[in-house]
Amino acid sequence: MCKFRVLLLCFAVVVVHFSRVNCLYDEDKKILRDGLESIAHDCLHGCGIDETEIEN
After folding, report:
1. What is the pTM of this model?
2. What is the pLDDT of residues 12-29, one digit of tens each?
3. CA 54 to chain centre
């Protein structure tokens, strides 16, 4: 569970960083956010965590 929290924190830091960058267009930010979301989703499933556990 500790690895998951560290991974989640890393993704949060990256997302916040890209949302604050001014040299990217909104479309580029959305593409990056969607890509990171899909990677995070794959990592969660790799850790054995499903959607219901995330919502809880």
Report:
1. 0.49
2. 777 777 777 777 777 877
3. 13
